[in-house]
Amino acid sequence: MKIEQISIVVPCFNEELALPFFYAALEETRKNLKQADIEYIFIDDGSKDQTLNTLKKFAAQDTKRVHYLSFSRNFGKEAALIAGLQYATGDYIAVMDADLQDPPELLPEMLELLRTKEYDCIGTRRITRNGEPPIRSFFANCFYRLMNRISDTEFVDGARDYRLMTRRMVEAVLSLDEVNRFSKGIFSWVGFETYYLPYENKERVAGKTSWSFWGLFNYSLEAIINFSEFPLTFASFIGLFSFLAAIFFLLFIVVRALIFGDPTAGWPSLVTIMLAVGGLQLFCLGIVGKYLGKTYLETKRRPLYILKETDQTEKEKKQ
Ligand code: UDP
Ligand code: MG
User: Fold this and answer.
1) CA 169: distance to chain centroid?
2) 0.70 cut: is pTM over it?
3) Ligand 2 (single-atom ion) residues, CB below 5 Å
4) Which of 12, 58, 134, 158 is the most interior residue, by most CB within 10 Å?
5) In angstroms, rounded to a whole number, what is the distance separating the alpha carbons of residues 107 and 6?
6) How many CA atoms lie within 13 A of 70 on its CB side?
7) Ligand 1-lining residues (CB < 6 angstroms)
């Protein structure tokens, strides 16, 4: 049996503290892989600390296995992921965080499942959220419930980005050339059989999370807008509802004036109605604006990231 290659794609943003632990743990895992070897694609996502130098050090120690890409600024994890997938050459491709929250010990099992079963992707799913602030877990739960209601694409609760995929699935992911990427949705959208391996939540080994509450909130809005048209339907629906209510009130006021004459009173209700309708209009306009904004960004066709330096050549990049 030939030795198969696994590419490990690792987005890193200010991870100088965690990276040595990560690399050591993966080297350990590498020894336990049967008939397989590892290639690392580290992406330095515009880190402000010594991340790039650490990566260069790893690459100098093991030029064959370790590769790095460095962005000109912070482009976000999504951009880092796609860059990694574009440069990955392995038969199987794994996506992993640098903070060891994605246990590398699972890799041999994931590889075995891909080889022996009819799956193209082995994902991972946290069955507990230990060590996470309860409020964050609460909002995460609400988000997954909402998303699965309003989108045709499946969103698995607790699913991490950590996954091992076959080459053909990665080709499919790369074939989507949209600029606004929400990779959790994209991995699910491309189809292929995915099995989710459950595991207990782990806390990051060193450094701190780069996600603030607002960051996560915006990330979930991104998901909604990229994978659902429900807000647009909702806007039309409340527009229709307030129109019907207005007709009803109109009839009521006209009939009342005909029967009881024209009382000068009644302007407070008028103001209330005007404010309510005005508010609704702005709200709906806001929703439409969000989608329009996305379309605008999409039409500019800007590159997803700008490389500052790398040990890879342009030829090694897949389109
Ligand atoms: N990350 C990145 N760019 C960013 C933010 C994060 O490449 O702008 C990387 C980060 O280095 C880590 C992974 O994405 O490897 C997950 O980030 P983090 O651990 O901060 O998120 P959490 O696990 O708390 O959701
Ligand atoms: Mg983390």
Assistant:
1) 17
2) yes
3) 97, 99, 101, 204
4) 12
5) 10
6) 18
7) 11-13, 15, 45, 74, 76-77, 80, 97-99, 101, 204, 209-211
> CA 24, CA 61: separation in Å to the nearest integer?
13
Identify the pLDDT of residue 319: 61
Please name which of 98, 115, 99 lies closest in space to residue 33, comparing C-alpha atoms. 115
How many other C-beta atoms are found inside a 10 Å radius of the C-beta of residue 261?
Answer: 7
CB atoms within 10 A of CB 319: 6
**186-245 tens-digit pLDDT:** 888 888 888 888 887 777 777 777 777 888 888 888 888 877 878 887 887 887 788 788
Contact 249, 273 (CB under 8 A): yes
CA of 209 to the centre of ligand 2 (A): 6
Give the contacts of 20 (CB within 8 A, at least 6 positions apart): 54
Dist. CA 213–CA 140, nearest whole Å: 11
Are 5 and 92 contacting, i.e. CB atoms less than 8 angstroms apart?
Answer: yes
Q: Give me the residues paired with residue 52 across strands.
A: none
